[in-house]
């Protein structure tokens, strides 16, 4: 390097910039950078730039039109991310300094770190040379050593090309597929876009498949048998099992495990045979047991995904909350190392750092100080499972820094910090030793099994605890050889009635594991190998993917589990049928990753890769643009006969299951039938199996449903309704829902013979609303038979008959009026509603409240179509000056009180975060 000039060092994070300045020495911090005689050091904060949106490339893309797709930019352009312009300009001003002769890329050692630097370098619009430092260890010695062996930046051009291609291919697929699918699927009644992405859609497909498996499951009754036995020293129980049982082969072990197990009896006949055999031989029971020592290996250190899985399993914390807490512990509290890592290992030169951290924690009395002292005394165990340079990529495992909290931690921060501390100490301790006992009790031809375990040596569980796995003991059968049969006494046998359960919905912990190890499900060996270590998404983005699926209403939380919504299931289904199912498979990520790795090795050109992506995107758009809804279901068999017209068959469509005699008109004509069952009811997706059952059996269930917020869950039976398709009913098929289509139980009903709309009306009171069904019975009307005049031979009787009044039924006119029982913050009474129906309006009401909580006065007027409208009036004229002033004071007090409550909640939230 020229001694008269300086080099600008750009890091990915402020903390790394500080570490470099400390290791190299001689720096002074000046605002947002460090300066020494040889270097300027400054930093990014992750990605500072992002690709332009389509409408920023060309205003015509503001309107989402199919004819404008695909969008294939000749050049991908970047813009500063929101709030990052000042940071970028600061880096640019440093880069353009006359005393800066070149730039050093000190961003993370990996593809994304390379992209972050090259985006910044291009933004600076300079021609100065750049070099690369590849840091995998952050010890001062490693940093100083790497600064002595800087490599030319162009040595990493292949890596830079792969990084750009990854970002640009994701943009191409996401922007084009989302717009094409949205334009085809969105209707006036649906809100938001139908978002499609390379990672989020395969993740959704995993959740959707499991949800369909869950919904298709029907409980099947079975029996377990528990036997009670005794020896001279103790009593014990054993569960009956079939030693000859063989599990069926399946690609999904969890689904098989929901039914087939060796301890289940599915027929009464088999149960009776077992009981008969047991009773005939109960006086000749014999037992034998085996006791084996089992090692429970000390756990590995955390990467982000493993930390998120553990926090979700133990505390039910979403992955996003775990990441936020770990990020605070890293940035604010300085207690943890960088959390967005995919490595569970430490660099091999980090042994002394670990010892220093252990010394810090052993010196100050804490619940872990004794364990730390013990580790230091014995020495670090399991080094080969902790220190390995080959498994350290951009970052190493999450460990404590050795610092202590400057303030007391609470909430998520305390829980996550404690998890990392325990895992760090446990990783260097001895294995836990268990004594596992299996006792088999034979009664005639029947076998009963008892399993227990006893912790012999706690090892790493000294700091970790037993978790949910309880220790239990079982006295020995005899003091000699427990494997020999010993006579025992049969006390009793009890059948336990159970039913199979559906395969469990995925928790975030399970989903994160599937995203990480999704390569196992891929048939292609090359793609499977590519995905073996990476999976889909990255540790840093997987939490955002899950939250994005929830915000797009594809997935909802169901307690600790994740549940695919009807929208999510329909998206995956239609992508499979178009077919562009590659968008919902992890194979796409594997294929792209394989191409990127070839590019990194110089085996594939950037231009060739992007041309393949352009072609792929065009194919996706073309298929999405040209598919016909009717065609994608044409090969599906009918689900049953139409229950309304009795002639047609019910077939599946995108939005529901309808009679094949349906027409486009809303009015029913003799040659068509408008019967339809929608695919969603009370937050449950109505799958094909439910339709087949309800059409064949008329009454089915009970099935699980929930309210709109997903906070309340209940079970209901279903039956067919000509108007609503399917409705809730009791076990006998008696409807629980009004025939008008409102999902409510009628609490009160009365007839009004004459109403404002000049027809009788039946008022009904439900839990949520007042309803009135208006209607008239068929009446006689005068009709003149009008025919062209012509000469004819008619008798006087014919003429008289012609003049007679004839009757013809008039179509029944039906209207439904509905008014919520709580309307604009005011409780409406039954008398209010009856007066409204009889007179056509209510008196002016002064105590309505707007969405913003402001009072207003209005009368309600009944419209001819059964709906109502507000007719606003002056509150002052209605209440008078005195009453209006009182009302304002009351309203002001309540508003101030609400502000105080809101402020106190804010204070609580601040204290919690601290």
What attributes characterize this protein structure?
alpha+beta, Topoisomerase I, domain 2, DNA binding, 6 domains, 26 helices, 36 strands, metal ion binding, seven-stranded antiparallel sheet, Rossmann fold, Topoisomerase I, domain 3, disordered C terminus, DNA topoisomerase type I (single strand cut, ATP-independent) activity, seven-stranded mixed sheet, 914 residues, 21% strand, DNA-binding, globular, 36% helix
Topology:
Elements: E1 6-11, H1 14-24, E2 28-30, E3 33-35, E4 39-43, E5 49-51, H2 54-57, E6 78-80, H3 85-95, E7 100-106, H4 111-124, E8 130-132, H5 140-147, E9 151-152, H6 157-185, H7 200-216, E10 221-230, E11 235-241, H8 253-257, H9 268-281, E12 286-296, H10 304-315, H11 319-331, H12 351-363, H13 369-378, H14 411-426, E13 432-443, E14 446-457, H15 461-464, E15 486-487, E16 489-499, H16 508-516, H17 525-534, H18 542-551, E17 555-558, E18 561-564, H19 566-577, H20 587-600, H21 606-626, H22 629-632, E19 640-641, E20 649-652, E21 656-659, E22 676-678, E23 680-681, E24 684-685, H23 688-697, E25 699-706, E26 713-721, E27 725-729, E28 748-752, E29 761-765, E30 769-774, H24 796-803, E31 815-820, E32 822-823, E33 826-827, H25 830-839, E34 845-849, E35 855-862, E36 868-873, H26 875-913
Parallel strand pairs: 1-4, 1-7, 7-8
Antiparallel strand pairs: 2-3, 3-4, 5-6, 8-9, 10-11, 10-16, 11-14, 12-13, 12-15, 13-14, 17-18, 19-20, 20-21, 21-22, 23-24, 25-26, 26-27, 28-29, 29-30, 30-31, 32-33, 34-35, 35-36
Helix pairs in contact: 1-5, 3-4, 4-6, 6-20, 6-21, 10-11, 10-16, 11-14, 12-13, 17-20
Keywords: DNA-binding, Isomerase, Magnesium, Metal-binding, Topoisomerase
Pfam families: Topoisom_bac, Toprim, Toprim_Crpt
Catalytic activity: ATP-independent breakage of single-stranded DNA, followed by passage and rejoining
